[in-house]
Amino acid sequence: MSTERGADPRARVGAAARQAEATKEAILQSVARIVSEEGADALTIDEVAKSAAVSKGGVLHHFPSKEALLLAAFAHNLDSFEDEVARLEREDPDTPGAYTRAYLRACVECFGPSRDDCLAFLHQFRSIPSTVRLVRSYKERWMHRVEQDGLNPAIANMVRYVGDGIWLASTAGETKPASFDEMVERLLRLAGAAESGGRQDTAGAAAMPKQGVQNDDLETDGR
Amino acid sequence: MSTERGADPRARVGAAARQAEATKEAILQSVARIVSEEGADALTIDEVAKSAAVSKGGVLHHFPSKEALLLAAFAHNLDSFEDEVARLEREDPDTPGAYTRAYLRACVECFGPSRDDCLAFLHQFRSIPSTVRLVRSYKERWMHRVEQDGLNPAIANMVRYVGDGIWLASTAGETKPASFDEMVERLLRLAGAAESGGRQDTAGAAAMPKQGVQNDDLETDGR
DNA sequence: TTGGACCGACCGACTGGACGGTTTGTTAGC
DNA sequence: GCTAACAAACCGTCCAGTCGGTCGGTCCAA
What we know:
The structure is a homodimer.
Chain A: H1 14-38, H2 45-51, H3 56-62, H4 66-90, H5 98-108, H6 129-148, H7 153-171, H8 180-192
Chain A binds a DNA duplex through helix 1 and helix 3.
């Protein structure tokens, strides 16, 4: 879990600092809960404050604007998704396509109870440039990982699109169709057979660092 | 094209009525344009009115609320997508999977210039019940068509998820990855080979009528 | 055919509420 | 006592929806 938001230079400690960190976490969880249970339109700062048992000023203290709040929550969501993919990848033997299979399995989990974590931030894609950038960097990490995965990129892309489609369906309230499991099985088999185009060079693995919330343009803490 | 919005009982004629219909069409097109070019947040009634060269009162005259306007535009969008699928299906020999292949091809077109028509109405899914119902009826029509398609439902579902994923990627501003065409080819082949579970009975084809904008709960015209 | 009654299409100023953000205060840890 | 972590009242803007009104067709009786 990447709850520690990347080594703050002026690392603070103490009871107060820990309390503040807990408050931030509560705020982010409230955002996720509201969006998933009541829809994106219900996401107001006042509502977040009430849900997190903090005042409006408290929310604005940690996240200087609603945009910053959205961005942080979005990043938090993407991070935990990537953590989950990484966890699933570790459970799978190191054959070509391991990452892609883990990615698919993580997407499938969206239909379970953890669906509440799937934030419906789509509506912000176009209007918030920083969100667009965040999604782009997320996709670049994905491409980077796929490159090392030694799988036919056409298959990897297919899996990604299916994953996005599953996510979309789940946020729209759909339930699993009868043939769902068979479909997943088929895809896993596709991603399991080393169709490959030959393993690309694996040098520079993990060369692309995870960015998390740290964005150049939008500080999420203090001023 | 289903531009004729289902036989109005008290069928009016005359120049005024035609003008009114043209105005409604202009309003709906403005909604589509604004959402695709400026994002869902920029969609205000004032903006729609300005773009359609109509007054705010004029917009509200045809669509009694913003919700009704959104619903009508969404239905309009879904309708034209289904029209496109139907057109593509007619160009494909009548083998099992014809519908599914047409569906995929229609989704692929989202990456082209017609992407502007892909309304980003997702953000309304949860908050507007009538929209949820609309999407559900749309999916039921899809299921109905797939049933007649004589294809393995797992494949059909896979294609649908990929289509949704493509749509999602396009609204997020992504471009086609290098392996895109190969992926589509693979899927088309999957949907072309009659993996089947045997053709289901074809009786009652088109038994499920298209609903279009006519909803029980939300009139879009008059008062 | 014409004139008046009627109606739908459309206009635009106005209102009331919601909501993002600011400012000023208060408390507690270091 | 200085600063971070909040609280709470407050402000300004934006925006959906209302409402009184205008204008051009349409219809029908004389």
